[in-house]
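Q: What changes when pyridoxal-5'-phosphate is included in the input?
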Amino acid sequence: MALDVARLKAEFPLLEREINGNPIVYLDSASTSQKPFAVLDAMDHAYRHHYANVHRGVYEIAELATAEFEKARRKVATFIGASDWRELVFVRNATEAINLVAYTWARANLGAGDAIVLTHMEHHANVVPWQMLANERGVELRWIPMTPEFTLDLSDLDTLLDGAKLLCVSAMSNVLGTINPVRELVAAAHAHGALALIDACQYIPHIATNVAEWDADFVAFSAHKLCGPSGIGALWARLELLEAMPPFLGGGEMIRDVRLDYFTTNDVPWKFEAGTPAIVEAIGFGAAIDYLESIGMAEIRDHEIKLTEYALDALDNEFGDRLKIYGPADIAIRGGAISFLFDGIHAHDVTQVLDQDGVCVRAGHHCAKPLMRQLGVPATSRASFYMYNDEHDVDCLVKALIRAEQFFAL
Amino acid sequence: MALDVARLKAEFPLLEREINGNPIVYLDSASTSQKPFAVLDAMDHAYRHHYANVHRGVYEIAELATAEFEKARRKVATFIGASDWRELVFVRNATEAINLVAYTWARANLGAGDAIVLTHMEHHANVVPWQMLANERGVELRWIPMTPEFTLDLSDLDTLLDGAKLLCVSAMSNVLGTINPVRELVAAAHAHGALALIDACQYIPHIATNVAEWDADFVAFSAHKLCGPSGIGALWARLELLEAMPPFLGGGEMIRDVRLDYFTTNDVPWKFEAGTPAIVEAIGFGAAIDYLESIGMAEIRDHEIKLTEYALDALDNEFGDRLKIYGPADIAIRGGAISFLFDGIHAHDVTQVLDQDGVCVRAGHHCAKPLMRQLGVPATSRASFYMYNDEHDVDCLVKALIRAEQFFAL
Amino acid sequence: MAGLEDLYREIILDHYRSPRNRGELVVPPAHKTEGFNPLCGDEVSVYLDIDEATQTVRDIKISGQGCSISQASTSMMSDAVKGQSVAEARRLIRAFKALMSIHESKLEGEGDGADLAADLDGVRLGDLEALQGVVKFPVRIKCATLAWNTLQQGLDEINT
Amino acid sequence: MAGLEDLYREIILDHYRSPRNRGELVVPPAHKTEGFNPLCGDEVSVYLDIDEATQTVRDIKISGQGCSISQASTSMMSDAVKGQSVAEARRLIRAFKALMSIHESKLEGEGDGADLAADLDGVRLGDLEALQGVVKFPVRIKCATLAWNTLQQGLDEINT
Ligand SMILES: Cc1ncc(COP(=O)(O)O)c(C=O)c1O
Ligand SMILES: Cc1ncc(COP(=O)(O)O)c(C=O)c1O
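A: The predicted holo structure follows.
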């Protein structure tokens, strides 16, 4: 069933805003999504009704806060197909999730002579933590290259994985929109005795996800990209891995006992959640999951496929070869993030003109400088969709782009 | 001027709540504080009006989000007397702030044979990160003991600091309420060539703070204890230190350039803020600072001194020696956190009875197990005050304690 | 809202005030296991003297500090398993944890606890059933189960 | 809200379309400095040929990619400092950054910029003043200052 986008739009207060006298056209959800009333209300209710620290108080509002906090964990875990809620660690964002793995599992298990396989399309969050480890430990980084069709070039995969300990790959590129074959990649990693870390930041908000089917070892994602609040994200990892990993941050909550000369750690997942957590943000994260489920992930994906197709066609019809699209043409292997450039006009300039018309798109390197160098450009503009976007938004984008092209015409 | 507490109470929506038919008496602000409308409204407004990712967008709401986010940083920096806003790094909480120092500055500068000086009254957040470092690097941990009056015993300070590289001390104990002589301790550390890290989690919410006057090197604190949201805190550190420190988490925002084989770091403070930050939480943090300033930190401290004095007197009048108070008697060197135990009744049981009457106090080890072992008890009950508490709250506490004592009478 | 009387039954307060089997055993031959409640700081040490031949709990002693619930539960546990076979002790552990978990599992989202009910079948908990009121106070469940988890860990350590 | 015309003055678009002093110089004798705008990915390389004896900018070349603002600012910068003394180049850097910073400093909370105004006194910015419109678009200020920061870094590296 098609989404009733008009109704959905009305559930997002920010989308009622005007920019320079124009209704806002928000096309930057790949960077961060807007929030529905349901999420804002859940957080507000928590602050007004049962705000207290968690896992500590005997009194009633502390019990309520703890129950709501842990209920949110279970919702998120179930949403991604985790078989056990203890596998879900709350962190600030996907970036912290990946760094957590780099600081704990990787530093406990990798050293000089070991190799990690990455791809040319990774976000800095899935590059820099491994470069830091490589610098510190002499771990080798290997790179899966890209085809001219903006997909991963897997022809040398076996060679790259040979002797590797970890494969780090994004389930969906935030620049190209490319959906990578996660299950196949994980299987290849496992066949070579390597673990697989999936950066699912761009995938989980848009496509029904089952980490067990992926057979992944680590999965990182952020709440703010799936209608949830800022300040919270999650690391999912297999229970045995979490249990064997050394702790990351030290402090309250993550301990079982502390004496002057030693400490012992709490059970997972709390072992990795030192200090007062993002309590109300977790509750908002849970509310976002409820919201997505109330719409249906299959419906969201369907809607985005149609809208992306519509957008690609509209851009092609209007601009043809004057506008280059960086990303796969095949809708089956791409999400709703469309990177583009006008020949001879810088992304920053185009985006500035679009802002005048209330059209919000991102310009820049999208935290993927290695990829931008592969593409041979310093920056692209990127429009990205979510369930609250419709064809009218795309039409506004095209109209604004026409104006931009004219403005910068030589 | 005395605070108009009735007016203040009305500004905190949760304080209108009832528990078991009784109006709530919230006495657990040392664990986490309640939030005024001003803070909740600021966050709600941000989500509805200018929510976007920061430091990335060219479009108007992204500019607004960035400006509000950075304005909050300046507010927080100014509030604690920092001379430069770049010295203020946003983190999740005080725990992460201390771990950040342990993972970056300490791991770059300390090794086997070096010593860190702690105190017996530190919170786990200021103990476990140093134990982790000690285990990993063979760094020696030395402990400043406690006097029978619940203050730090500084008689061997020079010996303890001899050859030490870092002094880690809490400005105010979350269990005892003891205010430690920070300026004197920092001076002693510096005289021995050591740096000083101040855990100011309990201090900054209650007493006007000037990090420059302290002459400290690192200061950690959390927003959630000063009327701000969960999910955000701050590390303040001297600019030269931050600039020299290696990065902590790797990812977007903290880089200047990334190539396949290396990355370079962004300017401080962003160098330490990898990934999408707690955007709206930062804005709420700023609103909490505005709120505190609108009341006046001197007025808050005055109020809490009077209220603590009233409470100590009331407890002594009612229970005398049957109720032991763990903390200094001298009001000049203590804050509004009062730990206590009835002879022969466990803290958990007392607190449970109090909850029946709507009185929320904390029972447990308060994340300070080394201190609890010094005190020779597994747990205490702790009542703690903030600007929204008044003498009536104390009277309710005393009444509930009378009931608890009766209930468990042999 | 459950009242205090649901939590603090008379028999619980009795065990709290006069705990059974307090003390220590010489290690070895006895075995000592420590348990922690990381939330409240309670600690318990369980000393077990197992007769290897008959696989029975010849003696058990308890030390440590805790609230009335954890102390009473510990005291009742020691009474219940002393002199019993190891197999019976393990059955009791499962049954008691089931009694607590049916509700705890709801809190932690592990289903409706129907599978746990089986563990309770045919086991006579006696005095221990007085602790049932604890399940209405979710935070206190960990107080009640501390001794049992520690006993289980002790039996595991001895067997392996 | 400022209009596009405030930002994109004709002279800016002219420099963008026909950038001056594009190219590279042989290193050494010339000195090369790279600058990055971490937000948008723009990169600029400034090649400086300084006459040691007279302390003047004998030649300057620019390479790299960027938006119209950063390209135009770079182009104007190269025109403005070429043939000038190093002292004059530094004065220009200070003046241009003051022009931008009076507003940027407001954004970043560094006071009202009164102190910066002094840096602008008596310096003739000419074409560069066309970039003044940028200050109404705070995110773009870093585009405009990239080349100038890189030039400053280059001069510092040569002198030390
Ligand atoms: C003295 C002290 N230090 C550190 C902390 C840790 O703060 P957080 O849990 O916000 O990281 C607390 C509060 O729990 C505290 O009271
Ligand atoms: C593919 C990908 N990975 C990682 C991240 C980092 O997410 P966050 O900034 O929430 O940590 C992002 C989003 O910016 C992303 O798109």
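Observations recorded in class: The radius of gyration of chain A is 22 Å.
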